[in-house]
Specification:
5-stranded parallel beta sheet; 19 helices; globular; binds xanthosine-5'-monophosphate
Length: 574
């Protein structure tokens, strides 16, 4: 999501990716996952200019313990937030220029200063709001964050003789440091810096060193700590313990941010917000909209009506399964609209992926609005907006990102509908949403569903979308999914799917020559869709998938496996 951020020492692949994106001026947006329905609707929020963020001093779901992370622009800032949440402590990311009053409004127990691409001694380099040090609350600076502490409190930071990048061995020299409680004296840590703390601020001492950094960990001996390495990345195997030690031993957090509490408190909040009003929610079959709807349903029951638009571009059995889950298992009020004809009519003759997206987005809004109007007076619209989207739209870089998003999720509810928003997931990361979903009793299949793009199979058919092609693609896609699940690889893959190309090639079946479609299939691993690698699937599995597709799907006589990473490719073909 942070396409535009520049990180000085990020690995080559990230900068290539960013450059490729800028050069290509691609129409696509990086999506965390399952954004289909909510992003079609998200413009409703923009139209109304409505904010559902807490008012100053009011934490989501009555959270008692909060941590403020000051974001200096590191590619790992989100990761710090996720690690803190994994310790069951609520946290929020704040851009470094955020006014202190806004940060203090969450009543933080401590501050974590993130890494960043700048050098603290450069003119205009990002620095922490000074009041943070004057607050006498604990501060943990990570990489650039530690350099900011040093610079701001009177130390000297300068370029190192050598840049330190990659794993290093950290030797803990201070006995009884709360950060290293329960850990060995020597730890493997991940470094990524060019600047060093040459002189520590007055009153500070070094608690640990590496071969290249005598001041790899610094402290004032009370509440301020600096780490030259990144505890939040997996390459620092004990990193979570260090973060946990800081939160529990230095800041006295108890870890009350649990899915159970989130559910309980968010149900209470929804009840309070909605009163006896009526709520609508668009379902997609994906996890975000499902969890959002389930939470709202748990709070207000039949005051919620869900609308499930079948755009005719879903995978085999998908609408039926989703519908049965919501209606039969979860006993929710669902209006089901089979709008296949409308969507396919609009897509006739459309080849350009951009136009496909536009047409699908516009049609969705039309259908949704017409169904919602039939329900009479409705007061609220529930959406599955996640925290990463909230962070993204709060950063200065977000303007460009929003433009791209708006571009591909064209539409937005007409302002005359004047709906207030309910966003019960706006403080949650994806993994937290999944946990909440499981606790709420959503089926595992739904909770662990791989991301599926809003325009659905339309952008996996190269060229014009027709019913015949959709059937072919559904057949091939079904086999890919089936075999990946049988091989127990489904959850390890970010996405696995088939693509119907517009290439025909000659084949031979029995005594006949054929001239059939070329199907491609793609399996990628990824953390967040920003980068992805093609999965090294076992040859036998590739063979089975290929055999089954050519034998079972009429019209296909050749299968290829996509072995390109992102960048330079993208995950989807269109
Ligand atoms: P790309 O192909 O850009 O995809 O590498 C990154 C992630 O975004 C999904 N994707 C979309 N999702 N509407 C969506 O809701 C779209 O138009 C769209 N295009 C791509 C893609 O499936 C992957 O997860």
């Amino acid at each position: 999501m942070n396409w535009i951020r520049r990180t000085r020492f990020r690995c080559d692949i990230l900068s290539q990716m960013s450059e490729a994106k800028e050069k290509s001026n691609s129409h696509r947006v990086v999506t965390s996952d399952d954004v289909e329905v909510s992003t079609y609707l998200e413009i409703a929020k923009e139209i109304q200019g409505e904010q559902t963020a807490p008012k100053p001093g009011e934490l989501p779901h009555g959270t008692k313990e909060a941590i403020a992370i000051i974001d200096f622009g590191s590619q790992y800032s989100h990761l710090i937030a996720r690690r803190v949440r994994e310790c069951n402590v609520y946290c929020e990311l704040f851009h470094w220029e955020t006014p202190l009053s806004k940060i203090m409004a969450i009543h933080p127990r401590c501050f974590i200063l993130s890494g960043g691409p700048a050098s603290v001694y450069e003119k205009g380099a990002p620095l922490a709001p000074v009041g943070i040090y004057e607050s006498h609350l604990p501060v943990l600076g990570i990489c650039y964050g530690m350099q900011a502490i040093s610079h701001q409190l009177g130390g000297v930071v300068a370029p190192g003789a050598r840049r330190e990048y990659g794993q290093a061995v950290l030797h803990v020299s201070e006995e009884n440091s709360p950060l290293f409680y329960g850990l060995e004296d020597s730890l493997t840590v991940w470094m990524s810096h060019g600047d060093n703390v040459l002189d520590m601020p007055p009153g500070f001492r070094s608690s640990a060193y590496t071969e290249n950094s005598p001041n790899a960990v610094i402290t004032d001996g009370a509440k301020i700590f600096g780490l030259q390495f990144h505890p939040e990345v997996v390459h620092t195997p004990q990193g979570m313990s260090i973060i946990k030690n800081f939160l529990h031993r230095v800041c006295g957090c108890h870890g009350t941010w649990t899915p159970g509490n989130v559910i309980h408190e968010s149900i209470e909040a929804i009840k309070k917000q909605v009163g006896d009003g009526r709520v609508i929610c668009a379902l997609s079959g994906g996890v975000d909209s499902a969890v959002a709807a389930k939470l709202v349903h748990a709070a207000i029951g039949d005051q919620l009506t869900c609308i499930f638009v079948n755009n005719g571009l879903l995978r085999r059995e998908e609408p039926e399964r989703a519908l049965s889950t919501f209606r039969k298992n979860l006993k929710m009020n669902v209006v089901y609209v089979d709008a296949t004809d409308l969507f396919l009519d609009q897509l006739k003759g459309v080849i350009d992926p951009e136009k496909k997206r536009k047409s699908i987005g516009q049609e969705f809004i039309k259908v949704f609005e017409s169904e919602a109007t039939k329900l009479g007076k409705v007061d609220f619209l529930a959406q599955g907006t996640l925290y990463p989207d909230v962070i993204e739209s709060a950063t200065p870089e977000s303007k460009a990102a929003n433009k791209i998003k708006t571009h591909h999720n064209v539409g937005g509810l007409p302002s005359k509908m004047a709906l207030h928003l309910i966003e019960p997931l706006r403080y949650l990361f994806k993994d937290e949403v999944r946990e909440v979903g499981l606790q709420l009793g959503l089926p595992e299949d739904m909770v662990w569903r791989q991301p599926f793009p809003g325009p659905g199979l339309a952008i996996r058919i190269i060229g014009e979308v027709t019913r015949e092609k959709l059937e072919i693609l559904r057949g091939a896609d079904w086999i890919v999914m089936n075999e990946i699940k049988k091989a127990k690889l489904y959850r390890q893959m970010w996405q696995t799917f088939a693509i119907l190309t517009d290439v025909h090639s000659v084949g031979v079946m029995g005594d006949f020559r054929t001239y059939g479609y070329l199907v491609a299939f793609r399996a990628v691993t990824s953390q967040d869709a920003m980068t992805a690698d093609w999965a090294r699937l076992p040859y036998n599995l590739l063979a089975t998938i290929s055999n089954r597709i050519v034998n079972e799907v009429p019209g296909v006589n050749r299968v290829v496996y996509d072995i390109t990473s992102k960048p330079p490719s993208t995950i989807e073909w269109e």
